[in-house]
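tokens incoming
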């Protein structure tokens, strides 16, 4: 899987919605949403990785750009990515004599908007917004299954929802399906696992944010690292 191929797929979505009501300004910026461009992190030719950190969408600081992707090396010093590097370093330090862990990061959506409530309060209120989201999730699912991580750390409630963790049935109708994954809590290992899927069967941690004002406290972070290490030791 190549980054430029993914850029083309996302660009097709942008081209479809560039002249619609999706492409308007938001409460955080006068720049129209799609005119800001899109960005995503992707490491080419890296698959069957150990850990995938999952977020929701990139922020926007006023710097418009064409659609592009970047590798971990391009962003390792950004504040958002520092917690991921720190967690991986702590895990590697515990795994004396073993090769370094492989990891990556995936945002479910690639439009650039700082206020995450925009998704719930604006996009999800319209059929057009729902379709716009779903087209991006289709591509994200392809990336996720290509990376095929042993463990996923999902630090956003909207990302959890889009994975399908909150889906339910009511009066014969299914709601909240989105990416459609089935989950089961593994009581022997103490976390969720994706089941009933031939392409991916990751263990999944649904966590609070790893950075920012609402980030995990140090104690919760240490328990998360211990738990990830414990599972890695049992499944690898």
């Amino acid at each position: 899987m190549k980054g430029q191929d993914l850029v083309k797929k996302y660009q097709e979505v942008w081209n479809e919605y560039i002249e619609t009501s999706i492409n308007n300004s938001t409460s955080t910026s006068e720049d129209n949403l799609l005119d800001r461009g899109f960005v995503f992190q992707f490491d080419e030719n890296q698959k069957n990785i150990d850990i995938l950190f999952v977020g929701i969408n990139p922020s926007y600081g006023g710097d418009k750009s064409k659609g592009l992707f970047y590798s971990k090396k391009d962003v390792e010093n950004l504040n958002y990515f520092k917690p991921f590097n720190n967690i991986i370093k702590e895990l590697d330090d515990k795994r004396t004599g073993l090769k370094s862990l492989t990891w990556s990061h995936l945002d479910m959506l690639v439009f650039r908007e700082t206020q995450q409530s925009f998704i719930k309060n604006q996009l999800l209120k319209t059929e057009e917004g729902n379709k716009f989201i779903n087209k991006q999730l289709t591509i994200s699912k392809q990336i996720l299954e290509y990376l095929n991580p042993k463990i996923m750390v999902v630090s956003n409630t909207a990302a959890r929802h889009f994975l399908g963790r909150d889906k339910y049935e009511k009066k014969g109708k299914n709601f909240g399906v989105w990416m459609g994954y089935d989950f089961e809590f593994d009581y022997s290992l103490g976390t969720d696992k994706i089941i009933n899927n031939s392409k991916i069967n990751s263990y999944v941690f649904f966590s609070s944010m790893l950075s920012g004002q609402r980030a995990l406290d140090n104690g919760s972070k240490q328990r998360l690292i211990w738990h990830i290490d414990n599972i890695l030791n049992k499944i690898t």
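note: The first helix runs from residue 3 to 17.
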